[in-house]
């Protein structure tokens, strides 16, 4: 198992080779990716591969996305540091930690109670205090905490869930994968003058968003 110093070297190499070399340029995103120890958010048997350019299993048929995709989505949100953020799909908590580094407050929703518990404990141990994690149907958002400046969804749906669009603040941004279970495109939504502007960005493949406004569980 690599030492913390060796992991730090791998993390810096990840930022250089996987992010900067692929045109991720937001300095705040790059600095957050340098700070957050990705290896602490994956099962021990996969820690050796934590900084490789690939997704990894975290159990419960869920994954931690490859570093480039995480950075791309974060950069696309264009966060300044003052945002109230909704994250749908806490998963391992890795992206949650990055959002906490970039924004003022993060509300995260996870369908799997055990994943929510594990990620919450991990984030507490790392000292994050601007995160709240909820167990529930992320496709319905968190109406009680809305509106949000940014919404980021780490699972795919056949169409944009209307509750999430309704919980987006004026001038807010939402990014999520839209498509079928095998292939999707990341789409960014801006709310401008109570209208929604849509932009298709990048072809991806995410696990399905299970819920009332997502896919049905098989």
Protein described:
29% of the residues lie in helices and 28% in strands. It is of the alpha/beta class. The termini are far apart.
Category from helices, strands and their pairing: alpha/beta
Give the proportion of residues in helices: 25-40%
What's the number of helices?
A: 6
Radius of gyration: 16 Å
The backbone outline, from C-alpha atoms, is globular
Average predicted local confidence, pLDDT = 96
Determine and state the CATH class: Alpha Beta
Query: Uncertain regions: pLDDT < 50 for 5+ in a row?
Result: none
Q: How many structural domains does the protein architecture include? A: 1
Report the CATH architecture: 3-Layer(aba) Sandwich
Amount of beta strand: 25-35%
Short description:
By secondary structure, the chain is an alpha/beta fold. It is built from six helices and nine strands, in the order H-H-E-E-H-E-H-E-H-E-E-H-E-E-E.
Q: Which key phrases capture this entry?
A:
9 strands; alpha/beta; seven-stranded mixed sheet; two-stranded antiparallel ribbon; Rossmann fold; 218 residues; 6 helices
């Amino acid at each position: 198992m690599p030492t913390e110093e060796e992991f730090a070297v791998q993390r810096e190499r990840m930022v250089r080779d996987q992010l900067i070399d692929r045109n991720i340029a937001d300095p705040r995103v790059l600095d957050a990716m340098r700070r957050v120890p990705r290896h602490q958010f994956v099962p021990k048997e996969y820690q050796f591969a934590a900084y490789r350019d690939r997704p990894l299993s975290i159990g419960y048929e869920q994954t931690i996305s490859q570093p480039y995709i995480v950075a791309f989505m974060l950069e696309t949100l264009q966060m300044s540091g003052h945002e109230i953020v909704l994250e749908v799909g806490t998963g391992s908590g890795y992206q949650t930690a990055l959002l906490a580094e970039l924004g003022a407050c993060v509300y995260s929703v996870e369908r799997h109670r055990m994943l929510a518990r594990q990620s919450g404990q991990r984030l507490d141990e790392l000292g994050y205090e601007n995160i709240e994690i909820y167990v529930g149907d992320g496709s319905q958002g968190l109406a009680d905490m809305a509106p949000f400046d940014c919404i980021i969804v780490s699972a795919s749906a056949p169409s944009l869930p209307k509750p999430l669009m309704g919980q987006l603040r004026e001038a807010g941004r939402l990014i999520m994968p839209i498509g079928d279970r095998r292939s999707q495109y990341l789409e960014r939504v801006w709310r401008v003058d109570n209208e929604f502007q849509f932009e298709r960005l990048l072809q991806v493949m995410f696990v399905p968003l299970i819920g009332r406004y997502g896919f049905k569980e098989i």
